[in-house]
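Narrative summary of target 7.
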Amino acid sequence: MRYMLLMNYESGAGCDVPMSEWSPEDISAHIEFQHALGRELTDTGELADAQGLAAPDTSKVVTWDGRNAPVVTDGPFAESKEFLAGYWIVDVDSEQRALEIAAKASTAPGNGGVPIQQPIEVRQVMAAPAVQG
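Modeled conformation, tokenized:
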């Protein structure tokens, strides 16, 4: 079963200091933790993909009615300081294993080496329904 683990950044959820204000050593420790988790999941054959995402202020939203030109706007700009920071797609035997991986990911070190307790949303990746024809 495939699961997407969505890494959310929420100021105050164990990390109230933006990464841009961390020491270089703390940033390195955090990145090395992410790389080590990726290597571990690659070694077990459970990692399908993992990426960090650019800051929300670089994102665009596209809508289109299928006739006129697509509308492209900056954003989204949420009222809160929460945003999607990255993701993993894992291929595991059970939801329990996906939850275990998410729990470990939540302990990534942050400012001062303290685990940031990052909220990780766990969602099963659905297969497309069979088309009757």
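The chain has a mean pLDDT of 88.
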